Amino acid sequence: MSLYEYTYIARQDIQPQQVDAITDQFAKIVKDNGGQIAKTESWGLRTLAYRIKKYKKGHYVHLNIDAPHAAIAELERNARLHEDVIRYMTIRVDEFEEGESVVLRSKDRDSRTRDDFSSNDDYVEEEE
C-alpha cells in the first residue's frame, strides 16, 4: 500500500460537526477499500487565497492515508460528488511527517501576541 496526504476544503457556511461527518464518511470509504487513516487534523476555518465558488473561507481538513490506489480513486470520486467539498488535493509521499503538520505549528506561532516578538530597536529612520 502507498502513503498519501489528502487535504480537502469544505464550504464556510456548514457547521464543524458537519465537517466531522464528512471526514467520517471519507474515512469509511478508505477503510471499506482496504486502507487506513493514520492521522486526521482539522485546521479549522481559514481564509482562502482567492475566491472559490464565491466562498472567501473554508474548513480545512488534512488526512494521512495508508491505502491502495483504488481506495484513493474512490475517495476522490466521492469528494467530486460531495456538494460541501469545494476543493481537495491528494499527494503521494514516501513517509508521513512526525508530530503536527506545518500548518498547525504555524497556527501556534500566529497565536502569539505582538509583544512576544522582539522590536527592531536598531532601526533608525533616515532624514532627508
How would you characterize this protein structure?
- This protein is of the alpha+beta class and 128 residues long.
- The protein has a single domain (2-95), classed as 2-Layer Sandwich (Alpha-Beta Plaits).
- Helices cover 30% and strands 38% of the residues.
- It contains 3 helices and 4 strands.
- A 4-stranded antiparallel β-sheet has the order 2-3-1-4, covered by helices on one side.
- The longest helix has 17 residues, at 16-32.
- It is globular.
- The N and C termini lie far apart (66 Å).
- The mean pLDDT is 85.
- Secondary-structure-based class equals alpha+beta
- Fill in the CATH topology: Alpha-Beta Plaits
Rg from Cα: 19 Å
Unreliable spans? none
What is the CATH top level name?
Alpha Beta
**Average predicted confidence as pLDDT:** 85
Strand order of the biggest β-sheet: 2-3-1-4
- Percent in strands: 35-45%
- The CATH homologous superfamily name equals Ribosomal protein S6/Translation elongation factor EF1B
Number of helices: 3
Biggest sheet, open or closed, and with what strands and sense?
A: 4 strands, antiparallel
The arrangement of helices and strands along the chain is EHEEHEH
Shape: globular
Which second-level CATH architecture applies?
2-Layer Sandwich
Which percent range fits the helix content?
25-40%
Number of domains: 1
Count of beta strands: 4
Distance between the termini: 66 Å
